Amino acid sequence: MSKSFDDLLSKVAECDKKVLSVAAAADKAVLEAVMAAKERGIADSILVGDEAKIKEIAATIGMNTDEYEIINVVDNVEASLTAVKLVHDGKADMYLKGLLDTKTFLKSVLDKEVGLRTGKPLSHVCVFEIPGIDRLLFLTDVAFMPYPTLEDKVNIINYTVEVAKACGVSMPKVAPLAAVEVVNPKMPVTVEAAELTRMNEAGEIKDCIVDGPLSLDIALYKEAAEEKGALGRKVAGDADILLFPDIHAGNLVYKSIVHMVDVKNGNILTGTQAPVILTSRSDSTEVKVNSIALAAIVAEEMKKNK
């Protein structure tokens, strides 16, 4: 089981080398990540975008563009459709957002002709390596689905379980989070968490252990579970997947960790035919490279399952 991003990078080395398709690649931070991914043996890349600008930026960071395929497409909308089609057609294994707006990027992902849609809603998974926690944590959804319904939460769990299993977690433990660890009819989130637990016990949600509602401290720390008399809970102190009730809770926890703790993280979109990497311009090169590595591992697992 991978317990760190170093473990994930070692796992990548066991996979066939992947090809990354980059939409609107004329961006310094993105090209730095692409170059690092190549140097570490994670993935080769096809760069789609304004070739002149790509080469101009590459020259400033010591990137040898002769080592990359470049497809010259100046218009960002056309570049995104060209780049996503490479993945759709099997010429690349995963898809990365470059210097274009998120709306245009997602429209290409969902394009009926050349995109990566599956008919299911998209979701977002962030993987964290946090000091003091002896395993990787999978947080979802912290950035994409605002107010997931019960059905959405089932999809989110299924998506995230696939990512966790690709990372070597054979039976992921899922904690549907709430402010409390008991069902309160006045708090619908707790009712839904209990229903997700029932569905798991009935075999309607498979390949994982679901136990909710749980407060965040009980999900992560056995000491907290002991203090609150919750050590008998199936996931107490041992959660792999933290399922947030809505985007506000998820995003607040995500940003608190990122800005207050020395962590490593990577993230991908799920619910697509192939891994999609949607990073922020403020993300460091390390986060982008970690996200590419995570996508490569998930792509390998999807290839095996096909």
Which strand order does the major sheet show? Answer: 8-7-9-6-5-10
Beta-strand percent range: 15-25%
CATH topology of the largest domain: Rossmann fold
Order of helices and strands: HEHEHEHEHEEHEHEHHEHEEH
Average of pLDDT: 95
The CATH C-level name of the largest domain is Alpha Beta
Helix content: 40-55%
Gross morphology? elongated
What is the count of structural domains? 2
Structural class: alpha/beta
Low-confidence stretches: none
Whole-Å distance between the termini?
22 Å
In total, the number of strands is 11
Helix count equals 11
Rounded Rg: 20 Å
CATH structural architecture of the largest domain = 3-Layer(aba) Sandwich
**Main sheet, how many strands, which sense, barrel?**
6 strands, mixed
What would your notes on this structure say?
There is one protein chain. The chain is α/β, with parallel strands linked by helices. The chain folds into two domains: 147 residues, Rossmann fold (3-Layer(aba) Sandwich); 136 residues, Isopropylmalate Dehydrogenase, CATH 3.40.718.10. The strands form two sheets. Strands 8-7-9-6-5-10 form a six-stranded mixed beta sheet, with helices on both faces. The longest helix has 21 residues. It is elongated.
